[in-house]
Amino acid sequence: MAPRTAAAQSQHIAAPAPDRRRAWLIMAMIVAFMVINYADKSVLGLAAVPIMEELDLSNSTYGLISSSFFFLFSISGLLVGFLSTRISSRVLLLVMTVLWAVAQLPVLVVATVPTLMAGRILLGAAEGPAASMSMHALYKWFPPERRALPSALQIGGAALGTLIAAPVVTWLIDGFGWRSAYAVLAVVSACWALLWWRVGHDGPYDHKHTATGSGRPRLPYRKILLTGTVLGSIASAFGAAWALSLSHAWLPAYFRTQMDMSAAASATAISVMSGFGLVLLLAVSPFVDALKSRGVSSRWSSGAAQSIAVCVAACAMTAFPFVDASGPRLVLIALAFGGTAIAIPLHYMTTAEVVPPAQRGAVFGIVAGVGTLPGLVAPFLTGHLIDTADTPAAGYTTAFLVAGAVMLAAGAFALAAIRPDRDARRLGLDAGPH
User: Most exposed residue of 142, 264, 269, 271, measured as fewest CB within 10 angstroms of its CB?
Assistant: First the structure.
């Protein structure tokens, strides 16, 4: 028998030794992480009506407070993405959740526009890297061929967070005042951080532990970022983020003021829509796996799926303001704000196919940072449109039409640009997992 080459020996020695129990424990912790993440994001929107009434805020001022969450969101996502190549995911996620707890505290001392903004800015800075870094941490525990379901479950934590937060936070606000929701979320974040410090560790598929990660040369970031796959993935993230930022900031207020719903009915509607998004997310994994098992390329199995989802949601966004019947309108609203859920795990999957493992965290941070920029614009723009329109209803309609146009353009570009197989070959990454 011919002797093994040094490379083959290195590959054999460095092969990961996965611990499936630990992997799924980490999976559960990451899902809980995302649940808390989205509960924190949602609390301002769910408390919008009582906060605006108590502090006598205009729609524009409230929109500015909501947008302030994104002042440092993208920048922190970019910076932490690069730090992830040097600092363990265990430390990064711990620091994030400690900051989440701290960010809820200012309004418990004094509730003013400056303290609301300060808390939202700090929270946004701490949550900017959350989705990309938790996905990066998760990928260290699962090989490339088994990431579809974990990816869907990780993003499913976001939908689950809204599904749980809407009724629970609304109950806290109605029963104990809106400040109580902030206090409870601070405690929950701190508890997660303590538990994570005990059980959270980097997995065997960390690039530092694998031959494929350590042996593959790094590529210039410019070369990676200018591939159609990464640009298209950013576009699909951008379109999805426009809808997501509107749902967090304005959807509860829209239900209360434009559809005459009670706080409880509004929370129920939001939970149902989050449940719809969760079902779509859980359907993504078997759908993508089934297509790939039939030999369908990543362009169509994961690229087209996310692009079409954003386009369909865009069409629903532009249609529902003109539907009078409450039932059909709610169905379209669910499709407009929940249909983009499919795009979120898939744009990470398509990006990962054209990035060396050692650079994945940084590129994920860039995709998340640029893709979530709508959060800086959409909430404030919506508040301004509502204040300057002849009626609030007309302002909301204009805002939703603008959202639909942005989402349709983003989805169409993503559909044309995302081609992971082609771009991986051009970058020399088609041979081996990443």
Answer: 264
Sign of the CA dihedral running 116, 122, 128, 131: negative
* DSSP label at residue 429: -
Q: pLDDT tens digits, residue range 126-152?
A: 988 887 788 878 878 877 667 667 777
DSSP string, 41-97: HHHHHHTHHHHHHHHT--HHHHHHHHHHTTTTHHHHHHHHHHHTTTS-HHHHHHHHH
**C-alpha distances out from residue 139 to 149, 193, 290, 303, 374, Å:** 11, 20, 21, 19, 26
For residue 199, give Cα distances in angstroms to 80, 156, 193, 333. 22, 21, 10, 39
pLDDT (tens digit, 9 = 90+) per residue, 161-201? 777 878 888 899 888 988 999 999 999 999 999 999 988 87
Number of other residues whose CB lies within 10 A of the CB of residue 9:
12
Count CB atoms within 10 A of the CB of residue 389.
16
